[in-house]
Design brief:
By secondary structure, the protein is an alpha/beta fold. It has a single domain, classed as NAD(P)-binding Rossmann-like Domain (Rossmann fold), CATH 3.40.50.720. Helix content is 43%, strand content 17%. It has a seven-stranded parallel beta sheet with strand order 3-2-1-4-5-6-7, sandwiched between helices. It is globular and about 50 Å long.
Length: 246
């Protein structure tokens, strides 16, 4: 992306890997509203088709981003390079050491950084992504607590990986969004019947006076796409949650 194009997505192609719901879907919606041609991918055909129709996507693909071969085949099959990629695919694994499923924990540790590496290799290095790549991380596991060990490891590792990849795939830019609690379907599935209590707790304590929604994170993702001076950095978005003593 040239300096003249900074601040605009008009006429650019934006790929959202994990665009069926939540942050990915909202980012696709905001990117399309900013003039981008949007491609969305997901693992489930039904929700993906609904999301694509909702944002007016110009293309879709159904695959698991954690499948190295499927990810490589997707990029290889693109008719033309895309300007920007947001990756929201994958989720955290929370469990105490006593109850941990080691197979699931091992997959969780490997999946997120390897998806980042796959997108960088098969996308940026292969000339299929030309502007920027933005990945999702988190802030919630920065404070030690029972049950968040695997997530804590990712919280520490992903910023370092982001910085290194930004050097390796330059001039394609690489950034990481570190989100706290975001009111999405994923949060609902993780918290279950504790969701409302968590919302109320955060709304009453966060400095911003409300919970963070997918529209907030999507706005940051779009900004990272259009601001061509940003690369190799991690951007927190948690409504001030990390400032609080819990």
């Amino acid at each position: 992306m040239t300096a003249a194009a900074a601040g605009s997505l008009a006429g650019q192609a934006v790929l959202v890997i994990g665009g069926s719901a939540g942050i990915g879907l909202e980012t696709a919606r905001q990117a399309a509203a900013a003039g981008a041609e949007v491609i969305v991918t997901g693992r489930r055909p039904g929700p993906l088709a609904e999301a694509a129709a909702a944002v007016g996507a110009v293309g879709t693909a159904t695959f698991d981003a954690g499948d190295d071969d499927a990810l490589a085949a997707f990029f290889m099959g693109l008719d033309a390079p895309v300007d920007h990629v947001l990756v929201t695919a994958g989720g955290p694994y929370y469990e105490s050491l006593k109850d941990m499923d080691f197979a699931r924990a091992r997959r969780a540790l490997a999946e997120h950084p390897m998806v980042m590496a796959g997108v960088a290799r098969d996308g940026a290095l292969a000339g299929k992504v030309t502007g920027s790549m933005t990945f999702m991380g988190g802030t919630g596991a920065r404070h030690p607590s029972i049950g968040i060990g695997m997530s804590s490891a990712m919280t520490a590792a992903l910023p370092a990986l982001t910085a290194s990849m930004a050097l390796e795939v330059a001039p394609v830019r690489v950034n990481l969004i570190a989100a706290g609690f975001v009111d999405t379907p994923l949060s609902a599935s993780l918290l279950g019947d504790q969701l409302d209590a968590r919302r109320e707790q955060l709304a009453s304590r966060l400095p911003i006076g409300r919970v963070v929604g997918p529209q907030d994170v999507a706005a940051l993702a779009v900004h990272l796409m259009v601001n061509s001076a940003l690369t190799g950095a991690t951007y927190d978005i948690d409504g001030g949650q990390s400032l609080l003593s819990w």
